[in-house]
Design the sequence.
């Protein structure tokens, strides 16, 4: 559907030598979801198609972007049980590589978390990228989810992301884990603010 829609609108954009295309994907394209290979494949396909089309028409003053929101409060999320979420976060955490020991320093460590957590951030070409590590797989999984949301954002966009943006997923976690999410967000905001 998105391919046909873009194809139809692209004709006029090419004629006018200007245009904006924004596709909607899902964080699932980057993270994967158990039992949803068809959904994940479709969303990853939208992202790949958007990147390819951006390269094809970018020189003609046409931009193609893809927005990939994280968990959104919907009926589908309400049906998600805590056991599934816990397994999902554990599985995601197992895919996160450990930081080298020299990066697990007090300067990179986040206080206020139940487990030991370290975060790194760098800005390249105006976009931020963050990495997180922990001594607990579930925290690594939560961190991966957070980093996926923040990565690729410009400074103001990073600062605009708040705890309430993660409320649908945080509501399924313990109070201590919710505090940990807030601590990670605070640390990411601190990194961004001190880089100005």
Sequence:
């Amino acid at each position: 559907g998105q391919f046909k829609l873009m194809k139809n609108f692209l004709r006029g954009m090419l004629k006018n030598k200007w245009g904006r295309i924004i596709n909607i994907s899902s964080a699932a394209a980057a993270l994967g979801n158990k039992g949803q290979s068809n959904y994940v494949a479709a969303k990853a396909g939208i992202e790949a198609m958007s990147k390819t089309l951006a390269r094809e028409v970018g020189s003609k003053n046409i931009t193609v972007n893809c927005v990939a929101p994280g968990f959104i409060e919907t009926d589908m999320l309400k049906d998600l049980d805590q056991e599934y979420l816990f397994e999902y976060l554990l599985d995601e955490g197992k895919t996160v590589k450990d930081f080298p020991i020299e990066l697990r320093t007090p300067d990179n460590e986040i206080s206020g978390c139940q487990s030991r957590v370290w975060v790194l951030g760098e800005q390249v070409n105006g976009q931020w990228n963050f990495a997180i590590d922990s001594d607990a797989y579930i925290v690594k999984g939560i961190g991966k989810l957070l980093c996926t949301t923040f990565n690729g954002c410009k400074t103001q966009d990073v600062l605009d992301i708040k705890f309430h943006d993660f409320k649908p997923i945080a509501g399924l976690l313990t109070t201590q884990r919710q505090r940990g999410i807030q601590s990670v967000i605070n640390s990411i905001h601190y990194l961004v603010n001190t880089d100005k």
